[in-house]
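#struct-pred

JT: dropping the chains for the assembly here, can someone run the whole complex?
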Amino acid sequence: MATDDLDRVREQVGGETTDSRVSRPLVAVGFGVALLVLSPLVWLLLRAAAIEPSQAVELLTLPTTVDVTLNTLVLVAGVTTASLALGVPLAILTVQTDLPFRRFWTVTSALPLVVPSYIGAFAFVSAFGPHGLLADLLGVELPEIYGLHGTVFVLTLFTYPYVFLTTRAALLSFDGTVVEAARSLNHTRWEAFKRVTLPQITPGIAAGALLVALYALSDFGTPAIMQYDVFTRMIYNEFGARRLDYASVLSLLLLAMALAILAVESRINAGRDGAYVSRGARRPGEIKLGKWKVPALLFCALVATLCLLLPVGILLLWLVRGGSGYAAGGFSFEPSFAWNSVSLAAAAAAVCVVAALPLAYLSARSDDRIGSLPDRLSYVGYAVPGVVLGLALVYLGLRYVPFLYQSVLLLVFAYVVRFMPQAVGTTKSSLLQVDPSYVEAARSLGYPPLAAFRRVVLPLVAPGIVAGAALVFLTTMKELPATLMLRPTGFETFVTYIWLVRDAGYYGQAAIPALVLVAVSGLSMLVILGREKYDAT
Amino acid sequence: MDAHDDDDGRIVDSGSRRRFLATTGAAAAASLAGCGGFLTGSSDDASGSVSLSDFRGSGPMVEQRGEPDGTSISELPDLSGELTVYLGGGEGGLYLDLIELLETEYADFDVNHQRDSSSDLANKIIEESRAGAVQADAFLAVDAGSLGAVAEEDAAASLGEDVLEPVPDAFRDGQGRWVGFAGRARAVPYNTNEFSESDVPSTVHDFPDTIAGSMGWGPSYGAFQSFVTAMRLDRGDDATRDWLNAMLEAGVSQYGNEWEVSNAVANGELQAGFANHYYTLRVKRSRPDAPIGLAFTEGDAGALVNVSGAQLLQGSENVDLAENFFRHLLSAEAQEFFATRTFAYPMIPGVEPVGGLPTIDELNPPDIDLTELADVSGTVDMLRDVGAL
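RK: done, full complex below.
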């Protein structure tokens, strides 16, 4: 973007932020939300302070700690890279090419996000594991699934949609005329992509990669099932041994890794001023796939088979094999569990988008680091393993808000801490596409700042907000550890039920709720994709 | 799945206790598999109509059982009121079946429950206790270590002697802060195709030398850590460390939990493993043809019998109801339930375990105080030290 353009934007932003009636309260609200979301970390600091510094150093420098840290970083790097390798090409194929059945492939590429990765991991172990279903079916020995490569493989399959969705959104919103200009200057298609498209969509790609990386960092279930030793397992062991001080020190190291990942993403995203684009930009001309059409179709089909057909097939098999002989009182599924899940997820989604709005607005409209600080800080909560967050809220809840302890409200707060960044991300990228001069125009017509925002900006960013809500909704539906720790006594959800029956080995009973969970979450994914009706025109 | 296509016909030709177990235990497991659904039929009945047959599983092995001995529910005071219970472990769901039966029996009795893993619930109870806001009346855990941790935090109240009395000393806390209601024996599941039963060593100590590689364990699993803790209590830290190192050198494989270990044995992925006894019976229940047998070691930590136990939480306002509920858990009917439906060891002398499992006094567990299993901390350090975690 030209320097004078940038200056124009700065001027407009500056013009807005000098209005103290809006900006000061907004900054205050933004930081307030961020601090509230970070408040559970107080528990970690308190607990960690209970351990002798020399002991803490010893713990952190143990060969095991160092090994496991390296393992974790390798896993995060692997999953992120692989997710980019899947997500970006799929996004380009479904947005910019003449791929047949694009709409269908868009849905199948996004849908794996609704499959909880621990269910995916079980499906892969029972299919590809030694003497697994597939090995039996094909009558051959399959390559070992356990370990680093298996963990990267499974985690990638169920998290790459983050990259797919954010890349896709970026591709849909950027100005295609620039590519045509580049092409007219005799750039090859690849050069035009590299020099024009890629820099424009990089912030979108990075936003998805960040979510993938932090997910891989904080996930416990998948690496545990795939027998790969990572940091969350060390933390979990300390919890099991009831050494909460040790668990806290290790959790803080985990958060340090999260901050490092955030710093990397922040660098990539530094030039995000370039993301200011007017709406209604023209789409770039469609790329003709030609002889690549068949390989492209095979690629899409392979991903959909691995991410969707296989896990759903395994669930159906559990259902058939489970049989009715397992039915018993304590294991019967009650419809109220489904209602509990859906209403919790809806509440979490609603609170998240409202709380995310000031953070996203501040971050999108300020050109200094202070303005984007609350936004970045909110990602820390996303990296906290659920079990750590759960116990932190047990401790803090009991001491400071005892009337909220074991209430649905505290549970919803836990979800906000964990998942708000997903709403911040989508809301911010929508806001970045709204020309600030629109607000200026409204202001000059005499609207007070809030009214101008409500009447001009809000309708334009609504699709982004809805997408954020849907993302929070479906991740809340899948959340397990914090739900177990914080739910009111007698309150069960889809996942607590699935956890119970699966843990007792009753796979057959887990199948139906798991399938319904996937179906309900799938509906919310359709909402995300439905939003594109606005963008794609 | 048809539960009855098990090869029941495989006759055991010798009186070897360990061999006997391998087949008859499995047959019992298979025969029990078809029986789970009948509870739904009985729960519609009017209250007070629950009989022994409702508590007992079904199938040929169970039908031959005599009447269980011990205090019958009919001799106990009625349960009346609402009890809040923290329920630890995946088996908590099975315990809920029993609770549901009691709720059917007593119209005025209602249990409000919260399920999670035993150690996470222990953490939670300790936090609640420190904040002076315990939320539950009772804690049912599948591991004495979790009960011990809560007890050592002074978060548990002592139970009346009449509640504790039916249970042998070894399976209750010396100060009455918990009482066992179902036993869980450490055992060695082995693959009957790839491994000959006679090769299963009779002491844990002999394992690294006898079976090189192809063994599995779940070092991050609570029951395994209790087993290692027991070994430390029984033989000291140095011997335990040597044993762990020897197992690692022999190439033992690591799993997330003992259900996975037992399944891997059945799959032939492992020749044998370390796991609680009932997982093998459950594998058999879901896959009657699986080539898996069960052996026990003798007189060492490998024969540890851990318990599922009940604990009254400090601050409960329902002491009488909770104690009466625990008495019900130790009644002849409830013990029959644990034996025939969850494959656990009954805790009162009058009730036999199913399927030819050795009785608890035949098992010869190490002489340790189960409350001391709470010291998992040193075990985790050691496991980490030797590189098992």
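JT: nice. Chain A touches chain B through 54 residues (CB under 8 Å). Residues 1-22, 273-281, 323-329 of chain A have pLDDT under 50 and may be disordered.
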